[in-house]
Amino acid sequence: MDRRNFLKNLLLVISSGGIIGGLSAGAWAKIINKDYDTTKHNYGMGIDIDKCIGCGRCMQACKTENDVPSAPFYFRTWVERYVIKSDKSVIVNTINMGIDEPSDVFTGRDVLRSFFVPKLCNQCDHPPCVQVCPVGATFKTDDGVILVDTKRCIGCRYCIQACPYGARYLHPETRVADKCNFCYHRLVKGLLPACVEVCPKQARLFGDMKSIASPLGRFVRMNKLHVLKPYLNTDPKVYYANLDGEVN
Amino acid sequence: MKDFFKRLPEQAVRVVTVFIVLVAILLVVWRFILPPELKDHDLQIIATIEREADKEVKYAGAQMCGQCHEKELDIKKNGYHRDLSCESCHGAAQKHVDNPTDVKPTSPKKRDYCSFCHNYNPSRPTGFPQINPDTHNPRKPCITCHNPHNPKPPEPPGSCVACHAQIERTKIASYHALIECTVCHSTPEKHKTSPRTVTPTKPDNREFCGKCHAKGSGVKGMPTVDMATHGEKYVCWQCHYPHMLGGI
C-alpha cells in the first residue's frame, strides 16, 4: 500500500467511524423512556424544631434505605442536640440514633434552652457544591434535587469542602462523594423519603412546592420559616419552623 | 503532486504521520470508547437519574401495610400512635411486601426500643410523654402494660408527669413539691385526648397566689407579702416561677 492509498483508507475509516458513532449515540438516547417528568415537580422539606424528639429514627431509616455505612460519622441526615447554657455558651452534639447517647443530662438553671435540630442536604437552589465540581459530576435536576453522578465523580472532595452545611461525605466503599438526595429513587415512585416516612412526630414534612395542597404547602403557609445560613444566598429548600437563632 | 511529496523532507513527513495517527486515535476513543453520557451533559443527567431511580426501595410506605393488616390499622388509627408509620417500629418491610410468607419484618419487644422516643430527655419538647427508665417499672418490657398499637393516655392528676416531665422535675425540688398539679390547674377530662385544644386552667390573678402568700393568710411558716405594696402592677409569675426551685 502506498502512502496515498493509506491516507485514503485512513480518511474512510475516520469518517465511517464518525457516522457509526453518531448513530449509536442517537440510538442510545432513544432507549431512555421516562414516565416520570422531572419538570413537573419542585421538591422541598419542612422541619418543625418544636416537634423533633431526637429519637434518631430518621438517621436509622436513612442508613438502611441508602446503604450508608453504619459507623456514626457517615450520615446523609443527622440530628444535632443544642444545649444553650445560661452563660450563653452553646454545646452541640450529634445524637447517635438513640444508642449510647451522651449521659450528661442537662437540667436546672444552668440550661437556658435545649432542643434537637435535624439536618440534611439543603438541596440549594444555588448550590456551591455544583459550582466547584471539576468534572461536572454533581448537578441540579429539574425537580430541584442535587444529584451526584457516581460514575463521573473522581472523589476529589472539593464539594465536601464547599458545602456550607457539611451535608456531604466521602463514601468509604465507593470512594465518591455521597449525600442526601431526598431518596430520589423513592420520589420517582411516588413514595416519601425514608426519614419522613418513619418520623414518629411528623417533625419532617415533605412535598412538592408546585402543588398547593401538599403537606409542605400548608407548612410554609402556617409557620414562620427560616433556612440555614440565608446570608450565603444558597437559597435552601429545607425550611425550618421555630428555629433558634443559635443554630447555624 | 508527486514532486511535492518528494521535495518534502523526511522528518516533516514523519511528524505529519504521527500527528495524523494521534488525531485518529483521539477520534476513535471519542467516538467508540467513551460512553455517550460522558460526552453529553444532558445524557449524563438522564443516565444519573435513571441510575438513581433504579435503586432498591427498602421502606414500603404506610399505605402498603394496611392492605393486609387491616386489624392492626383499625386499632392504631384512633390511638396516640396513629401518625406513626408501621415501619418506624417494624423496620424496612419492602422485602416482606414482595414476599409476605418467607420474609417477616421485625417486631421490637424489648424495653430499649420504646426508649428511643420515650426516655426522659430534657431536650425533648415539653408535653411529649417520657419516662425515667430507672424508676418506671425497671426491666419490665413496655408491652406487658402498654399496647404499642394503641397506647393508653395517662390518668391525671397522678400522671401529669407522664407528659410534663420537665415541669415535674423542677417542681419536685421546689417548695411547691407537695402541692398537686390540680391545686392550681383544673384539668378537663378532654385534655387527655386533645392536649393541645383542651388545655388546663392557669391562675390568672394575683389573688390566687395571695390565698396562701398574702399577709395574714394564717398559714404558719408561709412566706407572705403585703399584696397592696409588693410587686406593684405585675402579676406574681412575672417574677416568681412557681415550679422553680426556691420559687424564684
Main-sheet strand order of chain A equals 9-1-11-10
Broad shape of chain B: elongated
Structural class of chain B: mainly alpha
Number of strands of chain A: 11
Helix content of chain A: 25-40%
Total count of strands of chain B: 0
* Secondary-structure element pattern of chain A, one letter each: HEHEEEHEEHEEHHEHEE
By CATH, the topology of the largest domain in chain A is Alpha-Beta Plaits
Walk me through the structure.
The complex is a heterodimer of chains A (248) and B (248). With 248 residues, chain A is α+β, with helices and mostly antiparallel strands. Chain A is built from 7 helices and 11 strands. Chain A has 2 domains: 38-125 and 178-241, Alpha-Beta Plaits (2-Layer Sandwich), CATH 3.30.70; 128-139 and 146-177, Alpha-Beta Plaits (2-Layer Sandwich). Chain A has helices spanning 3-31, 57-66, 128-132, 158-162, 184-187, 194-198, 215-222, and strands spanning 43-48, 77-85, 90-94, 111-120, 138-140, 146-148, 169-170, 177-178, 204-208, 225-226, 238-241. The longest helix of chain A is centred in the first third of the chain and has 29 residues, at 3-31. The termini of chain A are far apart. Chain B has a domain at 2-53. Chain B has 13 helices and no strands. Chain B has helices at residues 2-7, 10-33, 36-39, 41-53, 62-66, 70-76, 86-90, 94-98, 111-118, 160-163, 165-171, 181-184, 206-213. Chain B is elongated, with a radius of gyration of 37 Å. The model of chain B has no long low-confidence stretch (mean pLDDT 85).
Describe the structure concisely.
The complex is a heterodimer of chains A (248) and B (248). Chain A is α+β, with helices and mostly antiparallel strands.
